[in-house]
Amino acid sequence: xxxxxxGIDSSTQSTKLLVVDLDAAKVVWVDAxxxxxxxxxxxxxxxxRQTDQVGVSESDPNMWIEALEVLFARLKKSEVPQQDxxxxxxxxxxxxxxxxxxxxxxxxxMSKLWNDFSxxxxxxxxxxxxxxxxxxxxxxxxxQRTGYTAAKICHMARHEPEAFKKxxxxxxxxxxxxxxxxxxxxxxxxxxxxxxxxxxxxxxxKSGEWSEKVMNTISPDLKDKIPPLKPSETSVGTIGKQLxxxxxxxxxxxxxxxxxxxxxxxxxxxxxxxxxxxxxxxxSGTAYTFxxxxxxxxxxxxxxxxxxxxxxxxxxxxxxxxNGYNEVLTQFKLSHADFVQxxxxxxxxxxxxxxxxxxxxxxxxxxxxxxxVYFGFALNDFTKERLCRAVLEGHILNLYDGYKNMxxxxxxxxxxxxxxxxxxxxxxxxxxxETEVVPVExxxxxxxxxxxxxxxxxxxxxxxxxxxxxxDPFIVLLEDKRCRPIPENVAVYRQAxxxxxxxxxxxxGFASDSDPFAGRxxxxx
Length: 525
Description:
By secondary structure, the chain is of the alpha+beta class. The chain has 19 helices and 23 strands. The chain has two domains: 4-263 and 443-477, 2-Layer Sandwich (Nucleotidyltransferase, domain 5); 322-404 and 486-524, 2-Layer Sandwich (Nucleotidyltransferase, domain 5), CATH 3.30.420. Strands 1, 2, 3, 7, 13, 14 and 15 form a seven-stranded mixed β-sheet that branches. The chain has a six-stranded mixed β-sheet with strand order 18-17-16-21-22-23, sandwiched between helices. It has a two-stranded antiparallel sheet with strand order 4-5. Strand 11 (203-204) and strand 12 (209-210) form a beta hairpin. The protein is globular.
């Protein structure tokens, strides 16, 4: 009998199932369901229901459950002995809101997702009610963002009061999947844990306390709709009877508390000790690191999150990353390899041509109604070569402009996501961040979930082991793709970073310490 552990990653565009054999230190099964392609009856694009409503991004929670059932059915037909799976853990896209009534029915048929920007008014109202930005950060350790869950709950309470009245449970995505795994309508467990919960902007990750003041700005009975908070490093129950009967799981298989995708992305890249930074290059871009103590950013730009180990995970998230890159590939009919060749025809810094790549509402900086800005371009500069480099550098400079406020002295940056395979992206990140960069092979959050499940199972069976000792054998760094900062590029990007930061502040109506026009002249000279 093997000691197998499963990780589920329920993301915006797909659900992934991964199984590891802990004793053999290897991944024995990986499978995925793409919502657009495999579940077309939900009519999604990039996993999101299509609508004409500005800023709205929603999905049907039933889609995530159906995707998981497809994966379980495939696993049952495989050679992997699913009855040997000792524990399962779920990684979920953060911040999405799923609401249930007492019987387990959805009180709102759609879940507002992390990239829904339709709740800015709710953010403003809540912030004003607690005395402004400083008051909000004092209450919950974070600013109110449209991406966070509090604004989604507030929007429902204001605009769908009958549905809100019927709601007895406000879940995050992974908590909803856990409820299904532990029985669903037949006794499913309704609990939450600190990692994902710290992204609700209702609970203070430093003090460990709920903010009644913020809750009351939404509804006096909201606190009754929030499930009990349990530790991240424990299990929440055993797998439901219907899944045992239908798919052959062991009735003793435990369901780990689970957490958000960023927390398990950290585990899946070995980011469980100080000094390592993970940057995920996907639909959005994130950067995060392990800290022993909570960090509260007075600007509210670096999210104060808990991790999945009882510690902390300060996190930066930008909404615009792969979108600009993908569009420029489409516009010029380029492959990923073509893009690298095109970019290499230009030099670092793009000879003073800058792009602020806010193609959609931006999370960091907080610009819900953002638009892209081109700076330093002459009329004949909008060429394939110039635009490709501008997109590349714009996204990375925007990511760095938030990252520079993180309380970390990075020894190494580990990259995940599809763009981590691009030499142009890796080298530019190394040059801009002035840190060695290496991509990590593997499945990121799904792997992190499986390894966390193994850690929890061992602890609960009397075997005390460090998470790092479980994780390290599974982490494969692609050393042949490691990039080190190029000194001459670093010198150029130090000037570019100052110019970009000044532009970003001025576009948003803030004063800056430097003049971007003078900075550009200096850079070109």
